[in-house]
Amino acid sequence: MLGHHYTHSFLETAVASVNAGCNLELSYGMRNNVFMRIPEALAMGNITLQMLRDRVRPLFYTRMRLGEFDPPAMNPYSSLDLSVVQSPEHRNLSLEAAVKSFVLLKNVRGTLPLRAQDLSGQHLAVVGPFADNPRVLFGDYAPVPDPQYIYTPRRGLEMLGANVSFTAGCSEPRCKLYSRAELLRVVRAAAVVLVCLGTGVDVETEAKDRSDLSLPGHQLELLQDAVQ
Fold first, then answer.
1. How many C-beta atoms surround the C-beta of residue 41 within 10 A?
2. Cβ atoms within 10 Å, residue 17
3. Does the predicted model carry a pTM greater than 0.70?
4. How far apart are CA 208 and CA 205, in angstroms?
5. Cα 177 to Cα 170: distance, rounded to the nearest angstrom
6. By C-alpha distance, which of 72, 8, 69, 5 is closest to 37?
7. DSSP assigned state of 203
8. Contact 34, 2 (CB under 8 A)
9. Residue 195: phi, psi to the nearest 5?
10. Which is one GO molecular function term here (predicted)?
11. Are 90 and 131 in contact (CB under 8 A)?
12. What pLDDT is stored for residue 17 in this prediction?
């Protein structure tokens, strides 16, 4: 609220938040955070002790239900070790989740799905700033994965046995510098072209909004050139 100028100080923000029913502050890494002003607000009479108890009670009730205060032996996750990380079962589940979360907006002449058996010997082109850049594939508040487990579109397609050519066209999502000649060279020889575009946290994230819904930089030009 302070950053959006709804309030003018941490103290005022703490009072407004608690009175509005907020009982949890996202202040990771902040020693000097808004809710540290609650004792001051209580002393000034801006909030009451009963109000604080009402706000804290559901927090600790939830933590108790989650088992945070149970002995470690009662926690089923205590028996897990690093062997379960990236286990075949978990990777298969992640693959299933990825497949089931795709949204297909249009499928002209039944182009999709691309089948591995049909791609053998075919020449594919995968282009665009999101085609082979692991860093831009993750949104805000995403985990930091081990690079060996990140499959970009280019890496995934190369596993299908097809002849895959690649060019980013522009090295990052803002796409300020676009190599049209390189793009045309790659796509002209391909039977199938996959264009990977988007925004990413470089363009939009918390506290960083776009002024319009257009593709950043030369991305639209890249798409039009690939189609043409």
1. 24
2. 22
3. yes
4. 5
5. 6
6. 8
7. T
8. yes
9. -105, 125
10. alpha-L-arabinofuranosidase activity
11. no
12. 94
